[in-house]
Amino acid sequence: MIEKEAARGVLPPGLAEELERFFVNAAAECPYGISTTAVYHQAALGRMSDVTMGEFLAAGYRRNGNCMYNMRCPGCSLCVPIRLRPERFRPNRNQRRVWQKNQDVAVEIAPLTMSRENLALLQRFLSTRFPEGRSDAESYYSGFFITSISRCFEIRYRVGEQLLGVAVVDGAPNWLNAVYFFFDPEQGWRSPGTLNILTLNHICLTRQIDLLYLGYWIDGHAGMSYKNAFRPHELLLEGSWREQG
Question: Residue 135, SS3?
C-alpha cells in the first residue's frame, strides 16, 4: 500500500483569494461506499478559461455540473487525484490485448448530447451499478454532465450500429479531463473502461495534449483498480504530483 496523504485541494495562489469565498463544505453519504461521511468542498462557478480550469484540475479539483469540488472528508484521505502524461505512458500486455480485441470498435467525437440513445444506455449502466434505483440517467445529464464552466464533449464507441459506451470529457489544448464513462453492461468482456482510457490517451498523443486527468483513484477499490494499471501515472500526494512507475 502506498504511504500517502491526499492533497486537500489547496487552491492555486492566483485563485485562492478571489474564489475561496464562494466555496462551502457539504456533507453527504460517501459515493464510494466507505463508511464515513463525505465532505465536498464545492462552489458553483461561471465560465472559466482553459488556464483557470487547468489550474483547478492540477490542484486536485473535479467538476460536477457547474460546480468545482474536492473531497475534505474528516479522517479519510483515500480519494487521490490521478493523471497521465500521455507521452510517458507505456501500455502493459493486458492493455495491448484490450486494444487489439476492440479493433472493430468505431470512435466518434461529438458535442455532448442528451439523446434517447445515450439516456437508454446510461440507464442500463446505472441500473446494473445501482440496482436499488437511486440514480437515473436524466438527472446525471442535467446535474452532472451538462456544464457551462468548460468545453465539454463526448466520445461514442460503436460496434456497427450498437452503442457500446460514451465518455463525457472536458477538453482544452493542453489537458483532457475524464468526467464520466458509461457502457453497455453486457459488453464488459471488452474491458471498456480500459479501452476508454487507451483511446483518450491516443487522442492526447495525436493532438499533442500534455495531461490526461482520470479523476480519483482509491487504493483497494475494485471499481477503480484498473486506473492503477496505467503506468507510469501521477498521483497528487501531499500537495505535489508524484510519478508512480
Answer: coil
Which of the 8 DSSP states describes residue 32?
A: T
What is the domain class of 83-229 according to CATH? alpha beta
Q: Indicate the burial class of 145 (C-beta count within 10 angstroms; 0-12, 13-18, 19 or more).
A: buried
Distance CA 225, CA 217 (A): 8
pTM > 0.70: yes or no: yes
Q: How far apart are CA 230 and CA 92, in angstroms?
A: 8
User: All 3 cell numbers of residue 11?
Assistant: 487552491
Count Cβ neighbours within 10 Å for each residue of 174-188 and write b for 16 or more, e otherwise.
ebbbbbbbbbbeebe
Distances (CA, A) of 142 to 36, 56, 163: 27, 22, 21
Please count the other Cβ atoms lying within 10 Å of the Cβ belonging to residue 139.
Answer: 10
Reported as a single tens digit per residue, the pLDDT across 174-212 is: 999 999 999 999 999 999 999 999 999 999 999 999 999
Summarize pLDDT for 8-65 with one digit per residue, the tens.
456 666 665 677 788 999 999 998 888 889 999 999 999 999 998 999 999 999 999 9
